[in-house]
Every structure is written in C-alpha cells, then in structure tokens.
Design a protein that fits this description.
- It is a lipid-anchor.
- Pfam families: Lipoprotein_9.
- It is found in: Membrane.
- By secondary structure, the protein is of the alpha/beta class.
- Helix content is about 45%, strand content about 20%.
- It contains ten helices and 13 strands.
- The chain has a six-stranded mixed β-sheet with strand order 2-1-3-12-4-13, sandwiched between helices. A five-stranded mixed β-sheet has the order 9-6-10-5-11. Strands 7-8 form a two-stranded antiparallel sheet.
- The longest helix is centred in the first third of the chain and has 53 residues.
- The radius of gyration is 35 Å and the shape is globular.
Length: about 290
C-alpha cells in the first residue's frame, strides 16, 4: 500500500513539473513573438517616417506669361530641393488673386505691388508680397505710326481698364508730352485727372488682355509686357516708347499670411532670385524684362 501511494505521488509530481515546463516555454515563446512584433513595428514606423520625409512638398503657383516660363525654368532645381512645382497659367489678372485667397493656389507671380494693393483694398484680400523679381517696362505700340511725333490729332489711344495699369498708362502718356495730368495724380490717375490734351486724343479703356487685338482698330495701344510678348511683340524693338529701367512696378511673388514664411515658399523665393534666373531673364528677354535683384 505504501509503495502504491509513493508511486502515485511520484506520478503526480512528474505531471505537475511537466505542466510548469510547458507553461514556461509557451510564455517564453509569446514573449519572443511580442518582442519580434515590437521590433518589426518599430522598423515599419521608421521606414514610414523615412518615406514621409522623402516625399516632396507640392506648390501650385498661378502665373501669366512670361512669369510661367521663369517658374518652369526653376522647377527642376526646386524638385531637387524637395519642392514639386505645379504652374497654373492664367490669361487674366483677376483669377490668380481670387484663387490664391481661396487657397486653390499656394502663391502667384504676375503682378506689381500697386496692383496688389488695389486688389486687396477692393476685394478684402490680405495677400502679401514675398519677394520682388523683375520689372516689365510698360510700352506703347502702333501698327500705323513709327514715332510719337506722327500720332495725329484725334488719335484713338487704348489703355488698360484696371485702375493701376490705366493710371500707369496715363503717366506714360504724360511723360511723352501727349497729355498733362493734375499735379497730385499718381498711379490711380483716371481720365478725369487730365487737364491738358493738346492732340485731343480719344482714350479708350479696355481689358488689358485684349489690347494687342486692338492694334488694328486704334492708333496707339499701351500694353503690359506680358501681353505684348504673347502677341509676339518685342518691347525693346516694337514699342514707340516704353518705361525706362527705373520703373517702380516690380513684379512680385505673392502668398498668403498663413504660408508666406513656409519652407517651401521661401525655397521658391530664393530660386526666383538666384543668379541662374538673372542670367535666364537677361538672355531670354533681352531687356523686355529687367531683374531687380
């Protein structure tokens, strides 16, 4: 009886020890799997972080010609710096600011500061200048005459119908002695500010983009350089007269207060004012555009 009892106790002890060993092995296996899974998760997270860091930041920038061509020129350089540049081209001066304000664009590049100021005031925008890039000397063109002296009495003269460029055109006409404005008239001058018009010029206001098409119908048209270039006019050769290089109407890169200081916008600003862009502008436009940096 005692031998049988001792055998039974021995068997129970063996079974208990076997069970403990199995549990320990299972626990160790689970811990190993957990450690392995944790390590893999950390690795995946690190890889994901590396992939995110490598992804380029996309900037959508609105522009007219020739600004769009300058942006396309610097796009490869920006891509190397982690900025993917998408250039959205416009043929008007209104939508680039509207779409920037509504955050459909990240920036725009087509206008000078007086025009931006006027648009901000008129529309309640708060768009801001980031950097000045170039001046586009404003010129007067004619299919009929080769000099200012040939312009006849009663000549039809077309100018832009927006306040700042219209005023700019009137100031240029005054500089040529064709009209005289009130002493206090400035960039926002209108026809009401004309106090002398010795040749009785008939001044017609029209949309800036339409001015090149008006050349056949008028005696003289004052055209923004970007629209002149689109119409295959060479400002330095075809204009009867043109603003000099001291023109204060610097074309600027424009953004919003919430993104103007972002790394991507600042990289764009730096690229637009690089030595490479200065050379590109001078070689490509031969004085029709003048770098200001």
């Amino acid at each position: 009886m005692k031998k049988w009892t001792l055998s039974l106790l021995t068997l129970v002890l063996v079974l208990v020890l076997a069970a403990c060993g199995s549990n320990n092995a299972a626990n160790n296996g689970a811990e190993g799997n957990t450690a392995g899974n944790t390590s893999a998760a950390e690795g995946n997270a690190a890889n994901a972080g590396n992939q995110t860091a490598a992804e380029p930041v996309k900037l959508v920038v609105g522009a007219t010609v020739p600004h769009a061509d300058i942006l396309k020129f610097i796009a490869p350089k920006l891509k190397e710096e982690g900025v993917e540049l998408e250039v959205k081209e416009f043929t008007d001066y209104v939508q680039p600011n509207v779409q920037l304000y509504e955050k459909e664009l990240d920036a725009n590049y087509f206008q000078h500061q007086p025009y931006l100021d006027e648009q901000n005031a008129q529309n309640g925008f708060d768009l801001v200048s980031v950097v000045g890039v170039h001046v586009e000397p404003f010129g007067a063109y004619s299919n009929k005459y080769k000099s200012t002296e040939e312009i006849p009495d009663g000549a039809k003269v077309a100018i832009p119908n927006d306040p700042t460029n219209g005023g700019r055109a009137l100031l240029l006409l005054q500089k040529q002695g064709l009209i005289k404005l009130k002493d206090e008239a400035g960039i926002t001058a209108t026809q009401k500010d004309i106090v002398e018009n010795p040749k009785n010029l008939k001044i017609i206001e029209t949309d800036a983009a339409m001015l090149p098409r008006q050349l056949a119908e008028v005696d003289l048209a004052l055209i923004n350089t970007n629209y002149a270039l689109e119409a295959k006019l060479n400002p330095t050769k075809d204009a009867l007269f043109i603003e000099d290089k001291e023109s204060p109407y610097t074309n600027i890169l424009v953004a919003r207060p919430d993104n103007k200081d972002s790394e991507a916008i600042q990289k764009l600003a730096k690229a637009l004012t690089s030595d490479e862009v200065r050379t590109f502008i001078n070689d490509t436009y031969q004085g029709a555009l003048v770098p200001v940096f």
